[in-house]
């Protein structure tokens, strides 16, 4: 009898393992699609500008129109995923994102493309906000969870760098429309697989925690914050400060609302977790560094070293390869042996070193000696830091708040990326314009502008290291 029961349990356990692995593949595929799209546009921007006649300031809205709803809605849809079911939110997000990608791909005018990019941002938020919460539920055992988070982080990190390569390859081989149309077959397959593979979850129900006034306040505050950050370089100081003050007012009103609401959208107890709050603070600074590196680094290769679109994308390929190999092969075991805190600090040290080296990239630089070594340091550091940081952040939330914590973690990722892009690009442009006004050559002035951006990024990375060392100190697992 015992033998029969053992034989019965073993196939069930094996079936359960295969089901969870299939679910992990589906979640990673959906995440990869949204992350690729966030980076794939960068290299194709000149082609989009030439084809649709965007002005220099108008072209920025091809990126901004995606970031604003994506960053603004993550917290809200993360909470709604807890209430209506995370599978429903994830699959609905895939459908919206895929449909919006087709609209982007067939766009022949500026207005249609910008509007479709905004709709993509909505779908991307719906898909991304609940993924970490679903992973934590699928893999509750610490070792398995660490491995799953390592796989998820590898897909996300490598996807960002891979997007730069694909953007250049598709734009040069076909045209910029295909950077969006490629999402159609990927999205359809991922949606069908999600419907079939992911286990349904009922959620708590909209009647619990559906604080609609609070949702309006926080969504407005987050969207306005992202808008202020990404558009800071195109406005005077006074309007920027006014909009920032308005965003802060909305955040204060939201906080007061959550403290008094019977069914709050965001339980303020989340921020009572030193680990969760500290991990999100570290992520803002770390992602600001890495996102700024990807954007400014691509421009350095094109405008200083004279690389074309495809060659620029190819130059970034060592990063996703290194990230994928290290995260999948070593990350979970390294965290298990040394603890997430130590691995995070080691990764941040490597990121600081990589940015410091990159800040020396000269006008007559070489890819092999001036770009590839810091690129590999940054990739190695990020491969170590990101899974450790993700695990720390999610460990600070209760199970019933997993979707909300996932949305919060993704929100700080978008805010960090937007902040890094805005600050570093404005500093680089200002430095370059000042040197040009003094009579410097175009390429030399551009190179010095990028060097300044890289030095500031090094300081931001040092800030991330300091916050992690102080706030997360004592957290070893």
UniProtKB/TrEMBL annotation:
<feature type="transmembrane region" description="Helical">
    <location>
        <begin position="375"/>
        <end position="395"/>
    </location>
</feature>
<dbReference type="GO" id="GO:0022857">
    <property type="term" value="F:transmembrane transporter activity"/>
</dbReference>
<feature type="transmembrane region" description="Helical">
    <location>
        <begin position="118"/>
        <end position="139"/>
    </location>
</feature>
<feature type="transmembrane region" description="Helical">
    <location>
        <begin position="237"/>
        <end position="256"/>
    </location>
</feature>
<feature type="transmembrane region" description="Helical">
    <location>
        <begin position="21"/>
        <end position="48"/>
    </location>
</feature>
<feature type="transmembrane region" description="Helical">
    <location>
        <begin position="176"/>
        <end position="198"/>
    </location>
</feature>
<dbReference type="GO" id="GO:0005886">
    <property type="term" value="C:plasma membrane"/>
</dbReference>
<keyword id="KW-0472">Membrane</keyword>
<feature type="transmembrane region" description="Helical">
    <location>
        <begin position="89"/>
        <end position="112"/>
    </location>
</feature>
<dbReference type="InterPro" id="IPR036259">
    <property type="entry name" value="MFS_trans_sf"/>
</dbReference>
<keyword id="KW-1133">Transmembrane helix</keyword>
<feature type="domain" description="Major facilitator superfamily (MFS) profile">
    <location>
        <begin position="23"/>
        <end position="476"/>
    </location>
</feature>
<feature type="transmembrane region" description="Helical">
    <location>
        <begin position="210"/>
        <end position="231"/>
    </location>
</feature>
<protein>
    <submittedName>
        <fullName>MFS transporter</fullName>
    </submittedName>
</protein>
<feature type="transmembrane region" description="Helical">
    <location>
        <begin position="277"/>
        <end position="301"/>
    </location>
</feature>
<feature type="transmembrane region" description="Helical">
    <location>
        <begin position="54"/>
        <end position="77"/>
    </location>
</feature>
<feature type="transmembrane region" description="Helical">
    <location>
        <begin position="449"/>
        <end position="472"/>
    </location>
</feature>
<keyword id="KW-1003">Cell membrane</keyword>
<keyword id="KW-0813">Transport</keyword>
<dbReference type="GO" id="GO:0046677">
    <property type="term" value="P:response to antibiotic"/>
</dbReference>
<feature type="transmembrane region" description="Helical">
    <location>
        <begin position="343"/>
        <end position="363"/>
    </location>
</feature>
<keyword id="KW-0812">Transmembrane</keyword>
<dbReference type="InterPro" id="IPR020846">
    <property type="entry name" value="MFS_dom"/>
</dbReference>
<feature type="transmembrane region" description="Helical">
    <location>
        <begin position="313"/>
        <end position="331"/>
    </location>
</feature>
<keyword id="KW-0046">Antibiotic resistance</keyword>
<feature type="transmembrane region" description="Helical">
    <location>
        <begin position="151"/>
        <end position="170"/>
    </location>
</feature>
<dbReference type="Pfam" id="PF07690">
    <property type="entry name" value="MFS_1"/>
</dbReference>
<dbReference type="InterPro" id="IPR011701">
    <property type="entry name" value="MFS"/>
</dbReference>
<feature type="transmembrane region" description="Helical">
    <location>
        <begin position="407"/>
        <end position="429"/>
    </location>
</feature>
């Amino acid at each position: 009898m015992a033998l029969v029961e053992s034989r019965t349990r073993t196939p069930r356990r094996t079936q359960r393992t295969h089901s969870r692995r299939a679910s992990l593949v589906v979640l990673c595929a959906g995440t990869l699609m949204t992350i690729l799209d966030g980076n794939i546009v960068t290299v194709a921007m000149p082609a989009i500008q030439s084809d649709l006649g965007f002005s220099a300031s108008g072209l920025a809205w091809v990126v901004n129109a995606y970031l604003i709803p994506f960053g603004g809605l993550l917290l809200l849809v993360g909470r709604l995923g807890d209430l209506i079911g995370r599978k429903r939110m994830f699959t609905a997000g895939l459908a919206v994102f895929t449909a919006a990608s087709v609209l982007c791909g067939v766009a022949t005018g500026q207005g249609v493309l910008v509007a479709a990019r905004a709709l993509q941002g909505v779908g991307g938020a719906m898909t991304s906000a609940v993924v970490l919460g679903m992973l934590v539920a699928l893999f509750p055992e610490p070792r398995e969870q660490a491995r799953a988070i390592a796989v998820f982080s590898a897909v996300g990190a490598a996807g960002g760098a891979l997007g730069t390569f694909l953007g250049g390859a598709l734009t040069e081989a076909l045209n910029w429309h295909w950077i969006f149309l490629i999402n159609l077959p990927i999205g359809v397959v991922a949606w069908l697989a999600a419907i079939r593979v992911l286990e349904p979850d009922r959620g708590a129900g909209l009647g619990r925690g559906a604080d609609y006034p609070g949702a309006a306040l926080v969504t407005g505050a987050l969207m306005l914050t992202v808008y202020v950050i990404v558009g800071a370089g195109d406005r005077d100081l006074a309007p920027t400060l006014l909009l920032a003050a308005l965003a802060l007012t909305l955040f204060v009103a939201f906080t007061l609302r959550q403290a008094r609401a019977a069914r709050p959208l965001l339980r303020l107890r989340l921020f009572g977790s030193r680990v969760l709050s500290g991990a999100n603070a570290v992520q803002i600074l770390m992602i600001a560094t890495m996102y700024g590196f990807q954007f400014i680094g691509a421009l350095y290769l094109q405008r200083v070293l004279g690389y074309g679109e495809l060659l620029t994308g190819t130059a970034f390929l060592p990063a996703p390869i290194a990230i994928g190999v290290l995260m999948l092969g070593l990350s979970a075991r390294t965290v298990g042996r040394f603890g997430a805190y130590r691995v995070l600090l080691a990764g941040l040290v490597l990121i600081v070193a990589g940015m410091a080296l990159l800040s020396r990239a000269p006008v007559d630089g070489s890819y092999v000696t001036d770009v590839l070594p810091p690129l590999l340091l940054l990739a190695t550091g990020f491969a170590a830091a990101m899974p450790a940081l993700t695990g720390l952040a999610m460990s600070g939330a209760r199970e019933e708040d997993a979707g909300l914590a996932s949305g919060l973690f993704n929100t700080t990722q978008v805010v960090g990326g937007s902040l890094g892009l805005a600050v570093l690009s404005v500093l680089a442009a200002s430095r370059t314009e000042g040197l040009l006004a003094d009579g410097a050559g175009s390429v030399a002035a551009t190179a010095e502008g990028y060097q300044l951006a890289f030095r500031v990024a090094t300081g931001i990375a040092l800030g991330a290291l300091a916050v992690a060392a102080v706030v997360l100190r004592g957290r070893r697992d």
